[in-house]
Amino acid sequence: MAAIELSAAPFNLDDEAIAWVQSTRDGLTPRDKLAQLFVLLARGSTEEALEQLRSFRPGGVTRIYSGDLAAEIALAQNFDTLGPAPMLVSADLEGSRMSLPFGTSVPNPLALAAVDDVEATTAISTIMAEEARAVGLNWSFTPVIDINAAWRSAIVGTRSYGDDVDRIERHALAQIEAFQKKGVAATVKHWPGEGFDDRDQHLVTTVNPLTLEDWEQKFGRLYRAAIKAGVMSVMSAHIAFPAFVRSLDPEAKGEAFRPASLSRVLNETLLREQLGFNGLIVSDATPMAGLGDWGHRDETLPELIIAGCDVILFSDDPNADLMRLVKAVADGRLTQERVDEAVTRILALKAALGLHKAREALNFEGARAKVATADSRALARDVTERAVTLVKDVPGLLPLSKEKHQRVLVYSTGSVQPFAPEPIPLSLPEMLETEGFAVTVFTPDLAVNPADYDLVLYLLAEETLLTRGRIFLDWKRLTGTVYGAMRRHWHDVPTLMVSLGFPYYLHDAPRVGTYVNAYGSSDEFQAAVLETLLGRKPFVGKSPLDPFCGSEQGRY
What we know:
Layout: H1 15-27, H2 30-35, E1 38-42, H3 46-56, E2 60-63, H4 69-76, E3 88-91, H5 109-115, H6 118-134, E4 139-140, H7 165-181, E5 187-191, E6 206-207, H8 212-228, E7 233-236, E8 239-240, H9 242-248, H10 264-274, E9 280-285, H11 289-292, H12 297-306, E10 311-313, H13 318-330, H14 336-352, H15 364-368, H16 374-387, E11 389-393, E12 407-416, H17 428-434, E13 438-441, E14 455-462, H18 475-479, H19 482-485, E15 495-499, E16 514-517, H20 523-533
Parallel strand pairs: 1-2, 1-10, 2-3, 3-4, 5-7, 6-8, 7-9, 9-10, 12-13, 12-14, 14-15, 15-16
Antiparallel strand pairs: 11-16
């Protein structure tokens, strides 16, 4: 087995912890060693989740939480009893609508980048970590250190800290420190770097097209900084990096486009040997087409571990996947040495988090006292308000007033969410009505006469979306007809466009006179937008990327 420096960063284990890792590993059955390599996705009722986990005995679980705190605490109390070792309990702590449903609604990374206050990022990340630990979470698949370069990307979007490497580094390191100080292991993703390919690895193996020199100045710098800061895990994604592969093998041809999750060259040679990463490598979600379009799962599933990933993230059929590993061990493709190496790192992460020691038991009252406190909500509200960004106001429309803009026509997409069958209605129109505005929400059967309105308000609420391919201003869907799609009101009626998510709609509406980016669609973001639109709060946010998409057209 390859030597793992358990006493070195990021694990930093003492002799007692090292002994626990080794004895626990050596005491596992061959079957349980393989099961430790899996983190399963637990959705649905707590009873269904318990049954699946008790049967499979994985190394970790990612829980999709309900809003029922009591039920979730009851489930979490069982996690460590379901297998031969304590459970890694993970989530994507990315803020906005990815906030814990019973916790504080916090800004997402792009909003934090718009505030660009490292102390604020630290404070928000501390809230996230404290609430996570209160409900049993100990591992987050964040921060995202991708770069908003290919602006059409629907999968980077609001998950990144923008397009400036300096800014990304500042905020990512602040989150890593805050998370790990509070006992939540951080993960940097998506290795070897996303954002220069505008496609989505949920749908296709994407490509990092940078030269070695450019990569080193951007992603190499970011990953080296995170490793130096002691980040505990790296997510190896379904992203190819042909420049590095071809630097070792100029005749690599198709192999140059092998996803990192299946590439020993990218995981071992580049990440471990050249960058010196000693921590845990977790694959990105294995049901993604970015993995599936590379080869048959009989080959790719074992190859994840063979190529250097220590953890297999998610499985649509865990028992079938387990048998794929069993067969790979039996036929020699996957060595027992490599399995033991991966299990050692998994157990080392658990020990680094203190999971091998007796811990204070989770309980409902204790969790309720720590999540969504008045202080946390107030702090998050303040930071959210500071994120709202006025990109342009050519006609001087703002602030809005009931006297000038009484009759409001709202065009809205609703909040588009990846797992919601229909868009979720926005609360901002109702908030405006409460303020005394007369609001009409457009429906396709409405015959619009501009003379009937004092303001046209476009509310677009599409945050980062998986499997969407593209986010764009779909005028036909917004207006209901081909003719409506071609009609613009802003020469007849004062018009305001607000994005509660994707920040690049000026590409599709460059001539709208007043445009605001608010980065998130939660009720808290919508309330923050209201405060700024009415002039009760100033616009403080500074755009962390180019909202004009490299074109001068949208500035006027």
